[in-house]
Amino acid sequence: MMNLGKKGAAKTAVIIVIIAVLAVCSLSSAFMLYYKPTFDPEDLPFDVGGNDVTDDAAVTKPGDDTAAVADTGASAGKNIKYVPKDGVYNFLVMGYDHAGINTDVMMVINFDTNTGKIALLQIPRDTYVEVGMVSHKLNAVFGAIKKNSGKTGSDSILYSLVEFKSLLEKNLCIKIHYSAIMDLAGFRNIVDAVGGVTVDIPADMDYEDPTQDLYIHFKAGNGQHLDGAAAEKFVRFRSGYVQADIGRVNAQKVFMTAFLQQVKSNLTVDRLAKIIEQVYSYVTTDMPVADMIYMAKAAFGINLSDITMMTLPGTATWVWNGKQNASYYVMNRPETLKYINEYFNIYNTDISDDIFDKNFVFTNEQDNDVYQIYLGNADYVIESKFSGDEIAGGELTIPMLKND
Prior knowledge:
37% of the residues lie in helices and 19% in strands. The protein is of the alpha+beta class and 404 residues long. The termini are far apart.
């Protein structure tokens, strides 16, 4: 046997380690090349009554057989199997403030990896819900779940995130494959990691809330470059919009479009590393790393024209919540169902009216004003839907209150 000596043995050991590392990298690359997320096709997250769906069940207010939801054109019949489409995924993304634990950013995102199309549905913070809370506002549900979870730290956040996801799945009849939540510190740091974002400020923005340590002062002007702290103030501002929180939601559309443009045009290896670092530090998610890589690869090269951003259809109104009149956003049932079927339904069968929000979680059947809005009988319905390139081209205008 040849005697390699100490130097020869050490050199051989190094070569073996290098070969092992290269082998692992090759296997990992091959794995990711052919990897695709899989889900149980029979894992239906909402109740369809044993998969029996009929088209003769009208949704009416108890005691009022004249109030019926308009026909949505959904296909219905006996024993229809809900089969998921291949390569189509839904995500829930939320943002919250550690101080208030309110999720003032809530959106469902659909990604069709076959076509490269992305649809994003923003849900206003004041959306009315009946889930046993005094506030009846959807943005308070996450905090309520967290408070009563009996868990602490990251466990309580992940648990509350999954429970909130289940609430939307069961009542909006949307299969949500992944969910993620981020606090404001993460938002600021991620914006800084991409080098800031340039946006057009539509009007002077002035607002102060010492209790939140929030001081917003912007002058109107195009092409203003915002770092993370300034970007946070821009997306949180809501007092100067004619449409209040809907104005804020639309401003977030403008910001997200500008953010995507910044990432697309300025992404470097160094910035990507910084973004990943911030995501790991501040984002809680149930999404496996392999699935993150798959989605990132599939989304690479998507243009703004492939992205559609929309707001949950509904009407802003005042509702007595048992203690006082408060501002709410009441979902428009028939229009929302149309959006769900067109953009977020991953199944080969339309979601029918008789299973959509079948427990009436997004309305108050005893409050006729709320119920009529919910049924689609409001005089004014907010529908905000734009493609990414339309927003980048300035087609989304946000009415502002006049300054004194």
